[in-house]
């Protein structure tokens, strides 16, 4: 399994979960060219698109290994970035949503004005023409990208508190509920609010709660829609049960603010990254830490690829395979280092000593030695009998 990360210095890295190491990295390190938003290409995780602090769009192809600058935009800072089959959708902090041609990113297909202070933007799971966005003092809104002047849903704030004061709104992230036809949306806010909206029912949230001690920065939903994973500004990663409507535990480990969480498309694993410069992978069912990798830079965004588990072989197994290949005559195709290790591995194997049959002369000598030993034993017996007779004679004389 692999996790793709981008950090505040502009580096893009791929991390191997099984090997707990960084496999490769792209782009030059520069804080002025930091990555603000990152997303995969449409139905492919071999390419990522980046929204940079320099107002540029960039594409990184993992197979080509060279970042490609697409175009320069007029955004102040990226609040959202997404790629569809033929469009690149961007949202800036001023609420300007722009649709660009995927094959010619410099050409603007359409644009419309959303929230004035936008903080996040996401496309629907089933319908990529559905767009949800929110921000500071800007509650959830859902738009139809095909008809930019059509606003599908506009949320209302919850009722005033007991002091008759308006509850503040500052949405940090949104997520669409799987298997809901993109009608159910989850939001998290800087004021610790976790809310669920159903555009089929009403404008106000159907559920709202506060369970975190700090601002919630990010949210992701599992593939079955039963759980939500949220990260807050204190470094806590919460597991929220969508059916019981309560927090059922935490993923322990992070010590800095969590900025991004990403779930594996198929397997029950979640990747977490933030200010503590570590990317962590957890098992959602057990909440156990699977791996942790230190990346040196503070992480802005993480993405889980669709790659399945990879079996990592031990050094001993690799040496045995190298030795077998060498014995089968494939040593010419191996590197010099592999040949050397294979030779060392075979040299360390203890060999059994072979038993050689004795020669006839040596066998006869051994038989003669045995006969001599037997003769000596007979002489000793005769001496003992003579001594006993002498003792008897002496006793008779004394009498």
TrEMBL record:
Q: Which SMART domains match?
A: WD40
Where does this protein have compositionally biased stretches of type Basic and acidic residues? Answer: 322-332
InterPro entries named in the record = WD40/YVTN_repeat-like_dom_sf, WD40_repeat_CS, WD40_repeat_dom_sf, WD40_rpt, WDR74/Nsa1
Query: Which Pfam families does the entry link to?
Result: WD40
A biological process (GO) of this protein is: ribosomal large subunit biogenesis
Claim: Transmembrane helix is one of the keywords in the record: no
Q: Name one cellular component (GO) term.
A: preribosome, large subunit precursor
Do the record's keywords include Repeat?
yes
SUPFAM superfamilies in the record, alphabetically? WD40 repeat-like (SSF50978)
Keywords in alphabetical order: Repeat, WD repeat
WD repeat residue intervals: 251-292
Biased composition regions of type Acidic residues, renumbered to the chain: 362-399
Please list where the region (Disordered) is annotated. 314-399
Designated name of the protein: Uncharacterized protein
| Lineage, opening ranks | Eukaryota, Choanoflagellata, Craspedida, Salpingoecidae, Salpingoeca
């Amino acid at each position: 399994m692999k996790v793709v990360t981008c950090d505040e210095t502009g580096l893009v890295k791929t991390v191997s979960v099984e090997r707990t190491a960084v496999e490769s990295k792209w782009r030059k390190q520069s804080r002025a060219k930091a990555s603000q938003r990152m997303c995969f290409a449409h139905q492919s995780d071999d390419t990522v698109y980046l929204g940079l602090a320099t107002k540029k769009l960039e594409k990184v192809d993992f197979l080509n290994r060279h970042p490609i600058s697409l175009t320069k935009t007029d955004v102040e800072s990226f609040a959202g970035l997404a790629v569809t089959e033929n469009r690149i959708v961007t949202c800036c902090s001023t609420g300007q949503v722009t649709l660009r041609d995927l094959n010619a990113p410099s050409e603007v297909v359409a644009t419309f004005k959303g929230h004035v202070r936008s903080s996040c933007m996401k496309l629907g799971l089933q319908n990529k023409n559905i767009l949800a966005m929110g921000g500071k003092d800007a509650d959830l809104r859902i738009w139809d990208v095909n008809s930019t002047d059509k606003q599908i849903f506009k949320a209302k704030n919850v009722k005033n508190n007991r002091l008759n004061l308006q509850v503040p709104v500052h949405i940090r992230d949104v997520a669409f509920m799987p298997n809901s036809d993109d009608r159910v949306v989850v939001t998290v806010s800087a004021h610790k609010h976790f809310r669920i909206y159903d555009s089929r029912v009403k404008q106000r949230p159907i559920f709202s709660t506060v369970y975190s001690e700090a601002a919630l920065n990010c949210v992701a939903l599992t593939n079955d829609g039963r759980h939500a994973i949220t990260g807050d500004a204190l470094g806590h990663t919460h597991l929220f049960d969508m059916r019981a409507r309560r927090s059922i535990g935490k993923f322990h480990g992070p010590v800095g603010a969590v900025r991004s969480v990403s779930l594996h498309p198929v397997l029950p694993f979640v990747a977490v990254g933030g200010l503590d410069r570590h990317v962590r992978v957890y098992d959602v069912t057990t909440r156990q830490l699977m791996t942790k990798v230190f990346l040196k830079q503070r992480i802005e965004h993480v993405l889980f690829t669709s790659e399945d588990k990879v079996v990592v072989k031990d050094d001993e197994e690799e040496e045995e395979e190298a030795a077998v290949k060498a014995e089968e005559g494939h040593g010419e195709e191996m590197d010099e280092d592999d040949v050397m290790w294979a030779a060392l591995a075979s040299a360390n194997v203890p060999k059994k000593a072979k038993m050689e049959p004795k020669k006839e002369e040596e066998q006869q000598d051994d038989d003669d030695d045995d006969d001599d030993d037997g003769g000596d034993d007979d002489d000793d017996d005769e001496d003992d009998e003579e001594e006993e007779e002498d003792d008897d004679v002496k006793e008779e004389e004394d009498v």
